[in-house]
Amino acid sequence: MTAGETRTAIRVGGDAGYDVVVGRGVVAELGDALGAAVRKVLVVHAPTLGARAAELREELGDRFEVLLAEVPDAEAGKRIEVAAFCWQILGQADFTRSDAIVGLGGGAITDLAGFVAGTWLRGVRAVQVPTTVLGMVDAAVGGKTGINTNEGKNLVGVFHAPAAVLCDLELLDTLPRNEILAGFAEIVKAGFIRYPEILDIIEADPEVATDPTSPEFRRVVELAIRMKADVVSEDFTEQGLREILNYGHTLGHAVEHAERYQWRHGAAISVGMAFAAELGRLSGRLSDEVADRHKRVLDLLGLPTSYPAGRWNTLLATMQRDKKARGGQLRFIVLDDLAKPTVMQAPDQSLLFAAYQEIGS
Ligand SMILES: NC(=O)c1ccc[n+]([C@@H]2O[C@H](COP(=O)([O-])OP(=O)(O)OC[C@H]3O[C@@H](n4cnc5c(N)ncnc54)[C@H](O)[C@@H]3O)[C@@H](O)[C@H]2O)c1
Ligand SMILES: O=C(O)C(=O)C[C@@H](O)[C@H](O)[C@H](O)COP(=O)(O)O
Ligand SMILES: [Zn+2]
């Protein structure tokens, strides 16, 4: 970091937990985050981050034996065959329990790298270096890892907390605008379920989303990370509270599946939040003002809030496999008010359908 730049450390899980470090240049802390006990490091990265991964190998080379695993980009990387490819590298290089894995990439890569770290020898050290907004504010934080199956999104995974998360804002300099905006869907989620200040900032000037160097950008990123850090500190394995992080995800994951993962996660979650707002409104719990605010904020960011009306049956069939379902009954996260998320148990299909009609295009 250069003089005058600040570094923020957000703690997850108290004394025995880890820091999520935010700032420009903080990837320079990777060696220390890996720690003195580690000998070998596997950096799992997408092709986009190949040059940066090679630089890291150079930078860390005098302290560690660094191997690189280039894996397919985005959701194509979140497959069991890709995890097996990484396990093979680890096996052939004799990785032991005192070695470590680094996830360098967007949320898909940190989900995969976390899964590999959580399963290799039943769990080795993972340090996450997210390179997308979405990875920084959500995916790399909290130790939820996962891969997809033919039947649905994230159906296989383990909870495996990282040893550190380094959110280097400089890495966002190369991130395309549409990826930045997709990441903002999870920031908006944090606004609705915990910190409405985020919504105020975006409404005051939606352009903050496209300037990673602005103080407002930094503020909303840190608020979203704080929200996630607090929730997962209280409920790491999603016994209750953590379910609120799934706001917009029940329908959103079904949209991703229906689109064969050609939609960005953030875009699908945006549609899912628009649906959750209608569910809140039509069930009589959420005011028109807060429900309408969803579409307004998401529109300001150019994120989608509708989906073809004729796709309901397809989405409903996929939603039956949602992890929040209990005994065959769907459960949705909805809002009673701003920053008051709650679980809606087994809503009538007629209510779900009516809410979907409101976002149907
Ligand atoms: N585990 C969790 O708690 C959690 C939370 C939220 C989302 N997720 C998962 O995260 C995934 C979505 O993550 P995402 O939105 O980061 O998408 P992504 O990982 O697919 O990355 C998006 C694109 O950005 C490119 N990219 C990444 N960093 C770049 C950079 N610095 N410069 C240029 N290009 C770059 C990638 O190559 C990719 O093409 C989904 O699979 C979702 O399920 C997990
Ligand atoms: O961390 C969590 O918990 C979340 O639900 C965060 C979500 O944004 C994320 O997309 C997560 O991967 C969804 O998890 P899933 O259990 O619904 O697959
Ligand atoms: Zn998500």
Give an overview in words.
The chain has 361 residues and is of the alpha/beta class. Helices cover 43% and strands 17% of the residues. The chain folds into two domains: 8-175, Rossmann fold, CATH 3.40.50; 225-359, Dehydroquinate synthase-like - alpha domain (Dehydroquinate synthase-like, alpha domain). The chain is built from 13 helices and eleven strands. Helix 4 (107-119) links the parallel strand 5 (100-105) and strand 6. The protein is globular. The structure holds nicotinamide-adenine-dinucleotide, ligand LNCXM5UN and zinc ion. Residues 46, 48, 73-75, 78, 105-109, 111, 131-132, 134-135, 138-139, 142, 144, 154, 171, 174-175, 179, 182-183, 186, 264-266 line the site of nicotinamide-adenine-dinucleotide (NAD).
Could you estimate the helical fraction of the residues in percent? 40-55%
What is the approximate shape? globular
Q: What's the CATH class of the largest domain, please?
A: Alpha Beta
**Uncertain runs:** none
**Biggest sheet statistics:** 7 strands, mixed
Question: Kindly state the mean pLDDT as a whole number?
Answer: 96
Hetero groups in this structure are:
nicotinamide-adenine-dinucleotide, ligand LNCXM5UN, zinc ion
CATH level-two architecture of the largest domain: 3-Layer(aba) Sandwich
Q: N- to C-terminal separation?
A: 47 Å
Order of helices and strands: EEHEHEHEHEHEEEHHHHHHHEEH
Number of domains: 2
Could you tell me the number of beta strands? 11
| CATH topology title of the largest domain | Rossmann fold
The secondary-structure class comes to: alpha/beta
The number of helical segments is 13
Strand content: 15-25%
Sheet with the most strands: spatial strand order:
1-2-9-6-5-3-4
Radius of gyration: 20 Å
